[in-house]
Amino acid sequence: MQLRFAYRGTGEEYVSAKGWEQTTLKRCPLHPQGGCHFARHGTYARISPPGTLICRYYCPEGHRTFSLLPDCYAAQLTGQLSEVEDVVKAVENAPSQAVACEQLRPDIELPGVQRWVGRRVGAVRLALHLLKGLLPERFADCAATLSAFALTLGLLDGCGVLVVLRGIAEPWLQQLPAPLGFRPRHRVVGGRRAARQHPTGADPPGKNR
């Protein structure tokens, strides 16, 4: 299970400062009154930026791991929220998504780019629509675009919208879709849907989507 680590720096700054050594989780989310053997459980690595480690905790009684993801990182995608934001803004500012796709990933063929872009744009737009409903007093009259949310939030340069929204949306991060929120994809286990755990190793599940 991913949890938010409030952090306003970039991924590169997090790596330089070894931010995973500064993260702490004082109480077990499953047993806030105590009584379990909740403890730090090492780290796992993310591919980008190089050198990134994410702090983990484990509750043996609840059989659940908890990772503390800094605000700058995209959930369930490689890289940072700023990179996702750049893709979505490129689509918003282009005549069409197809035109934007031609410029964004020249290293892969167009159908692959369209899927890559579509996943990011669709997930961000869904999260913005959900936030409009969750916080109508703040966003009801705001279009579900990053540029409109930037204006509402007073971000004059239009940058860092997703990082700011992760802090605002903290009470609902488990319900909001990645890469902004932490709602996990599910796999079927024994006929039931089960949330993914965070194994030791490079990048959490879903890193290449």
TrEMBL record:
Q: Origin, by domain of life? A: Bacteria
Region feature (Disordered): 189-209
Q: What is this protein called?
A: Uncharacterized protein
Tell me the organism. Thiorhodovibrio frisius
What lineage does the source organism belong to? Bacteria, Pseudomonadati, Pseudomonadota, Gammaproteobacteria, Chromatiales
